[in-house]
Amino acid sequence: MRIVIAGGSGSLGRALVPSLLADGHEVVVLTRSAGGAGRAPRRTDARVRYVHWDARSAGPWERELDGGDVGLVNLAGRLVDARPTPAAIADLTRSRVDATRALVEASTRCDRPIRRWVQASTTAIWSDAGEARLDETSPIPVGLPQMTGVAERWEQALAGHRSEHTHVLRTSIVLEAGTPALDRLLMLARRGLGGPVAGGRQWVSWIHVEDWVRIVRCALGLAEPTLPDGVIVASAPHPLRNAELMSTLRRSAGGAGRLLALPTPEPVLRLGTLLLRTDPALGLTGRHATSRVLDEAGFTFHHPTLAEAVPALLGR
């Protein structure tokens, strides 16, 4: 197949590319970088083509979607690691909605429907879910604008697209070595601040990047099991509370974290996120999300528990 990855120069795209190349597929990355010179995947390969688009309007990039035997993975969108100002929320929304609408409109002009469409979304669409147990059947609440509001409009932008099969991946926190999500948590643990954050009761849903790649491959029809069309929660089967998360990280982080486990009260967290120019809701809110669809399809996680996943990510 030809696999087109919109927003594929980010960390998830760079994780996905090598597995597609290993199977001999043609990989096209749509990038907004000037001249199409996006960041290369982890293992540079001449089979990857970088094609420029503005993630907003029609252009020559649309030719990559035509031909019938095409898979599309839409990862386009600004990182959520930003202060929740009205301008930032608007930009988070616009970067996702505009890119998705551009792809939808392009699909309507293709001679044949796209074979497989994998649309990124997020479990943050459920906002701060408290003690609720969430899966693909859970209703979408009226939530925080930088979480539910952004994600709901992102999914709605898919309306009117043309594809034979469509999967919407509501992805939890993806753990991958060298990415901000894991590095910041490990930094706290190594410096002796690896205690519970804001009480530590909030649920944390997560997934190892390898399992995320495997789910995408199944959605593209490149691996077993076959997944039904529709929403899929891309999250490991064992969420855990923040306090347990930090405890697990301390055991793997080393440094002062082996001796100290100072908690991070909410006021300290808010001050820290202000200095780092990020959103405190990322640490204060949580949700327990798992996939009924993957379980019923027979998908087996290679990294089902965090206690095993973190040492694997750190090469231990």
Secondary-structure topology with pairs:
Layout: E1 2-6, H1 11-22, E2 26-31, E3 48-52, E4 70-74, H2 86-108, E5 114-122, E6 133-134, H3 145-156, E7 163-171, E8 173-175, H4 180-190, E9 203-204, E10 206-208, H5 209-219, E11 230-234, E12 240-241, H6 242-253, H7 266-276, H8 281-284, E13 288-289, H9 292-297, H10 306-313
Helix pairs in contact: 1-5, 2-3, 4-6, 6-10
The number of distinct β-strands equals 13
Helix and strand run: EHEEEHEEHEEHEEHEEHHHEHH
Q: Which class of secondary structure composition applies to the elements?
A: alpha/beta
**Largest sheet strand order:** 3-2-1-4-5-7-11
Helix content: 25-40%
Structure, explained:
The chain is α/β, with parallel strands linked by helices. The protein has a domain at 2-174 and 206-235 and 288-301: NAD(P)-binding Rossmann-like Domain (Rossmann fold), CATH 3.40.50. The protein is 35% helix and 18% strand. The chain is built from ten helices and 13 strands. It has helices spanning 11-22, 86-108, 145-156, 180-190, 209-219, 242-253, 266-276, 281-284, 292-297, 306-313, and strands spanning 2-6, 26-31, 48-52, 70-74, 114-122, 133-134, 163-171, 173-175, 203-204, 206-208, 230-234, 240-241, 288-289. The strands form four sheets. Strands 3-2-1-4-5-7-11 form a seven-stranded parallel beta sheet, sandwiched between helices. Strands 6-13 form a two-stranded parallel sheet. A two-stranded parallel sheet has the order 8-10. The longest helix has 23 residues, at 86-108.
